[in-house]
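Team,

Forwarding the record for the chain on the shared tracking sheet. I've put the sequence and predicted structure together so nobody has to dig through attachments.
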Amino acid sequence: MDELERSLLNVFTYSDLNRLVSYRNDDTRLQSLFSDASSRYVLFHRSQFLAKVQPEIKPLSIRGSEIERYELDIRSQVFLGSRGKKHYFAVDLADSAEIKPVGRGDVEFIGLRESGQQLKAEDASMLSYAKAMFHWHHAHQFCGKCGSPTKSAVSGHLRQCIDTKCVKAHFPRIDPAIIVAVVNGGKCLFGRQKAWPPHRYSVIAGFVEPGESVEQAVVREVFEETNIALDKVNYHSSQPWPFPASIMLGFAASAANAKIILNDGELQDAHWRSVREVVAGMVSRQFRLPPKLSIAYRLIEDWFNAHSDEKLADVMEQLNVDQTWWPRWIEWKL
């Protein structure tokens, strides 16, 4: 499995959209698509998307004619691209907008963090794309150079300063962040922040700083948070993370030392844990993994599967489906 195949297993990465970049500057073509029967609009309101929730969660896309009928108060609009013969736009409604389409009992606005794992891969990716774009629009209402207001342009993929002496073009930005599974003697390094849900642990992560490579960021973040030095760093995969606008760059690394010191106080606790100890912690309800939505879970899953005869997915399924089975499994397996 190469890096592309590995990344496509991460939630939010499997995009089947043709982004049709050549359309973005073609106002005539885009104008014809706004009310075209082939066009669909996904609606966002306060960072949540409109979804049909029964019998399964999926984004509710509506036609341009419905946009006009409901007289929605639109704050931002982005052309996303095409899927087959359908063209997709995303619309971000003003916070104060009256949401009329939610008259049906099976339709509501829901958060992508809560629902991402349940969506089809291509829908999760499309919604992640739209959510990140709207965050950028909301955060760049004013020019960072002269302070004048900006306006949306290029079908939502650029914000232009309206000052005629400035006219600076602002392009979408994302924040690169690293996340790494550090291994020593078969054990994985886990940490937790105080603000997390009780007993939740994950692998080490942090933002890339100016003037450093992503590999240097891996080494720095691990040492700053745990005092662990690394002797090998290998790329794993990446994941768009629209909470609010990051790209997670995943790595696997091996430690050069084992003694943990919480240098910067960012973590409440950090410790080494074997596969056996991970399972025992889940059974006792004293250890919780990050959600399956995240690349953090994927990194842990790959480490777990490499050091166990059982797949983590199978272990998690047994834990969730049949609690009475666990004491017997633990006694036999561990």
